[in-house]
Amino acid sequence: MEETVFNYENIEVSIQEGYAEVVLxxxxxxxxxNTETHKELLHCxxxxxxxxxxxxxxxxxxxxxxFCAGQDLEEVKPDPNGRQIRVGDLVRSNxxxxxxxxxxxxxxxxxxxxxxxxxxGASLALACDVIIAAKSARFLQAFSKIGLTPDSGGTWLLPRxxxxxxxxxxxxxAEAVDSSRAFELGMVSRVVEDERLTEESRTVARQLAKGxxxxxxxxxxxxxxxxxxxxxxxxxMESLLQDHLGESYDYREGxxxxxxxxxxxxxxx
Length: 269
Description:
Distance between the termini: 26 Å
Organism: Ferrithrix thermotolerans DSM 19514
Number of helices: 10
Number of domains: 2
Oligomer: single chain
Family: Belongs to the enoyl-CoA hydratase/isomerase family.
Mean pLDDT: 94
InterPro entries: ClpP/crotonase-like_dom_sf, Enoyl-CoA_hydra/iso, Enoyl-CoA_hydra_C
GO molecular function: isomerase activity
CATH superfamily of the largest domain: 2-enoyl-CoA Hydratase, Chain A, domain 1
CATH architecture of the largest domain: Alpha-Beta Complex
Protein name: 2-(1,2-epoxy-1,2-dihydrophenyl)acetyl-CoA isomerase
């Protein structure tokens, strides 16, 4: 049974079966991000992260026909008669803390991309650990259409997934990438029929919520840092992570379950 645990204006939050589901709900504006939505998301993520025993995985999705259209341009449109909002200031105050929080969240994240993911919305999706796209989903690097460079971590995330040439192609042309092509390029983990997206993402979240949380987060860290490390340094980093995980309850439980030929009962500690 789902239980709504927070009251927000721009997002909906529920917790069930050990995972949380966060839904961007500014449907009329294609779930675009304004300053208030940033504040709500940061508060929500920090709160959920602190509920270690009750929340061990997170689903992020959108309401309606879009996942997230990126920045709400109504909030930043140039005013010929007033003080202009500095775009860089907005990125530093809103997007930097939000994207850093999503990327470093101490529980695994599942993004259910239910429609268009444009600009910062695409980055928000790509920052998650498991990315499940509905067949109708599209990814759009829309920054060049308004004379800007990608932000929100886009220049870090996309090239690592698709390579430099294909990333620059998307950044320069701002052409939409459909779900099938996104899967071919390695941008998403899997593609499902639209009507199966919710259940597929919840199935994955349930599985992750029952898993070894600390091991998931250490694995994410190893993969992300490994991009900038030599092979030798990666070997050492892996050994140090094993030092830490080898002292965890979940390691002891996993070994015991294997030897006793029973399913492991991980607790995320």
